[in-house]
Design goal:
- The chain is mostly helical.
- Helices cover 75% and strands 0% of the residues.
- The chain is globular, with a radius of gyration of 19 Å.
Length: 187
């Protein structure tokens, strides 16, 4: 019987594991409520090793924010590729649907919400959020060919989706929720 040598994970593999674990931790407790020791424990590594991969909690959180924007971009790319036509409306609708599916992963949506809240007082987080949105807006503009108002509307509806999902608006049958949820698809 042949035994395989135990393969140690590389620093990059550990970094990815820490990022995936940190998404859940930061989603649950936010930037201010999450410690690096909690992330380390959830990832099954020492806090010292977290600090070898990321110099501080701010760097870890901004890496998580960047990772989330990469996931958003991938979803939007899938949506653009699956569009039923090439008009800006068709592409934006398909990208919007792909995004709605993506934020049904509450951890990703919660990290985005926590990042926006932390951006108010944390300059490095603010810069990560700005950079992520800048890249995303330019991607959506280029992929859809949409005009300024269409792109603004696309992002405005996305922000409204965050609100609706976070408060579970569809569970409330009231005039105000019907107004806000009209024409918006959730998964």
């Amino acid at each position: 019987m042949k035994t395989e040598a135990r393969r140690l994970s590389t620093a990059e593999e550990r970094r990815e594991t820490v990022l995936r674990t940190a998404i859940g931790a930061f989603a649950a407790r936010g930037y201010f409520g999450t410690t690096t020791s909690e992330v380390a424990k959830a990832a099954g590594i020492s806090q010292a090793y977290v600090y070898r991969l990321f110099p501080n909690k701010e760097a870890l959180f901004t890496a998580v924010v960047e990772h989330c924007f990469v996931r958003v971009r991938a979803a939007l790319e899938r949506g653009a590729a699956e569009a039923g036509g090439s008009s800006p409306e068709a592409v934006l609708d398909s990208m919007g649907d792909a995004y709605a599916r993506l934020i049904s992963d509450n951890d990703l949506m919660l990290v985005q919400l926590h990042a926006q809240a932390a951006a108010v007082s944390e300059p490095a987080v603010r810069e990560a959020v700005r950079t992520g949105y800048a890249r995303t807006v330019e991607y959506v503009r280029g992929a859809s060919g949409g005009g300024e108002e269409q792109i603004q509307q696309f992002f405005a509806v996305g922000m409204l989706c965050h609100l609706l999902v976070s408060i579970d608006a569809e569970a409330v049958d009231a005039p105000w929720t019907r107004t806000l949820t009209a024409g918006i698809t959730h998964y």
